[in-house]
Amino acid sequence: MSNFVFVIDTNKRPLNPVHPGLARLLLTQRKAAVFRHFPFTIILKTASAEITQPIQLKIDPGSKTTGIALLSNDAVIWGAELTHRGQAIKDSLESRRAIRRNRRHRKTRYRQPRFLNRTRKKGWLAPTLEHRVKTTLTWVNRLIKWAPITGISQELVRFDTQALMNPGNQWYRVSQRRVSRV
Predict the structure, then answer these.
(1) What is the mean pLDDT of the chain?
(2) Beta-ladder partners of 57
(3) Are 6 and 14 in contact (CB under 8 A)?
């Protein structure tokens, strides 16, 4: 599967993505110019009143990677995988923690302990989870600018953390889908 090329008109409104061969033809005939290299997007030099087809954005979240696909009439026209930085974020937090502990145990002047700064704001998420949410949301917003997306659907996966703690119990996954309109 080759990813289709995103097309925007002269007013930067998204049009239907086109096959790479047609995009190459538009570029060689100088009817379009390269707007972005990734994801590859072209901008038309003349105004277009083309009627766009509905495109569905599908998201499949995961712990290490998130899958994103654009579907038109049940055919995948663009797909990508977001690789998350969860382990890198965890490593940098552990490094900060080690530096902080080393600073506390040095033979330096007395510092009064700080203990009233442990509250978390409402809606707090762990840094790795926050990264996953924000990068996925960033890519959704980018794709909305470059493709005429009419609906977004995301697979929601829940699993039993207690079953992971007690391996004697069989753990399971329950999947459900949530569909929202843009």
Answers:
(1) 85
(2) 70, 152
(3) yes
